[in-house]
Write a structure and sequence with these properties.
This protein has 344 residues and is an alpha/beta fold. It has two domains: 87 residues, Arc Repressor Mutant, subunit A (Orthogonal Bundle), CATH 1.10.10; 204 residues, 3-Layer(aba) Sandwich (Rossmann fold). 44% of the residues lie in helices and 19% in strands. It contains 13 helices and eleven strands. Strands 4, 5, 6, 7, 8, 9, 10 and 11 form an eight-stranded mixed beta sheet that branches. A three-stranded antiparallel beta sheet has the order 1-3-2. Strand 10 and strand 11 form a beta hairpin. The chain starts with 14 loop residues before the first helix and ends with a strand.
Length: 344
């Protein structure tokens, strides 16, 4: 009989990969629970587990185990029985710091959706099919968005666009959902002939005006208030810019892009930053999971279309796609910049 040690494995063991998938939930829960309890903020100054557990009102032994997990995740350090947040994470995980990751708080809310996935599969979506998640904006999160954009994504966007024919010679542009207005401000700084309109909701545009004033650009940048889906946005633009402020169903996307087409001059540029799925629909994973969550919630719109779906939508609305650039390196999400041109 053949010796056991000489037997070739009948198949490749995938058990390790599957365990890592399952552990993703556990690591995420540990991290989000620490965020929820403000542990990272409390550990800006190193503390013993005894002190931290007393401040939190938590069980000391379980707290210590959680802190050890966070050390294992390389978010905390441990020296001489004291735990502290690693310096490189202080700007992002300590409340009050300029780059504090407000967006992570959304994942605290989303945990309930994911825990109920089995129930949603059996019972169907939680809400009516026409319900969309509404995001609330205020001075703090708009300012945070501005600071995050200056960590490289705005600079990279501009560098990409300088090679696009017509970008540097544009005379009139509108930034739809421009929020802080930094894209319009930076484009106007680099192109002295460019007149800019920043269009956003009433709760946001007062903040936009502050940024325009801070950069001394009020004489070249106009602010308009409203809903760019429902309201008039103007005409005769050489450039329309829209960064992560729109997502909708295919019908809504077609309607929006047709509106932009009508607002542009012939050969005008429409530059969109948005989420895109691979043509086979197998990634990026974050776009897939967020599309699934939208279905669970009963939201009709999609976070992302495939690259081919986007190409077809642009073609149907009178645009030619010139560039699709992966910007995921500069974002926490799988974002692409799409440059399209209006056909005559």
């Amino acid at each position: 009989m053949e010796r056991i040690v000489d037997i070739n494995p009948p198949l490749q063991d995938k058990g390790k990969e599957l365990v890592q998938l399952a552990l993703g939930f556990e690591k995420g829960q540990a991290f989000l629970t620490a965020l929820e309890l403000n542990i990272f903020t409390l550990l800006k100054e190193s503390k013993t587990v005894e002190v931290l557990a007393e401040e939190l009102g938590t069980d000391q032994e379980i707290t210590e185990s959680l802190l050890d997990v966070l050390v294992g995740l390389k978010l905390l350090s441990r020296q001489e029985k004291k735990y502290g947040i690693k310096p490189e994470y202080v700007p992002f995980l300590v409340q009050g710091e300029p780059y504090y990751a407000h967006n992570l708080r959304l994942h605290l809310e989303q945990r309930k959706d994911w825990i109920n996935l089995k129930h949603r599969l059996q019972a169907g979506p939680a809400l009516n099919r026409d319900v969309k998640q509404q995001y609330k904006y205020n001075y703090d999160n708009i300012s945070w968005m501005a600071r995050r954009n200056l960590l490289g994504r705005l600079q990279a966007t501009y560098k990409i666009l300088t090679d696009v024919s017509g970008f540097n010679t544009a005379k009139k542009m509108i930034d739809l959902g421009g929020a802080h207005g930094l894209y319009g401000i930076s484009f106007a700084q680099m192109n002295p002939a460019l007149q800019v309109v920043i269009f956003d909701q009433p709760v946001i545009t007062d903040i936009t005006k502050e940024y325009i004033s801070d950069y001394g650009m009020h004489h070249r940048i106009e602010v308009r208030t409203g809903d760019y889906i429902k309201d008039e946005i103007g005409k005769a633009y050489d450039l329309v810019f829209c960064a992560l402020s729109f997502n909708g169903s295919k019908e809504e996307t077609l309607s929006f892009y047709q509106k932009v087409h009508g607002a542009l001059n012939d050969e005008g540029l429409f530059i969109v930053q948005t989420f895109i799925l691979n043509d086979d629909g197998t990634g990026p994973m974050l776009a897939l999971t967020q599309n699934l969550r939208k279905k669970m919630r009963g939201e009709q719109d999609k976070l992302a279309f495939t690259n081919k779906e986007m190409q077809d939508i642009f073609a149907e609305t009178g645009f030619i796609v010139e560039k699709v650039i992966d910007m995921s390196h500069y974002f926490t999400l799988p974002i692409s910049t799409i440059v399209v041109r209006k056909t005559k």
